[in-house]
Task: structure prediction
Amino acid sequence: QNFREQRIDGSSLPLLTEDHLTVTMGMKLGPALKLRATLSRRLGHCAICLHCVHCHNTP
Result:
C-alpha cells in the first residue's frame, strides 16, 4: 500500500535507499535490507554501492 501511495514503480524501486524504506515507508530495517539485497541480486548491481566510477572503472 505504501508503495502505491508514494507512487513507487519498477523504475524507481532500485533507487530506494534504506533510509527511504525505513523512515519514509515505515519498514523495519531487516526487511528493508533484504529487499535492497534482493533487488541488487536480480538487477546485477552491487548491494553496497551505487555503481560509481571509482568502484567500477575497468582498466
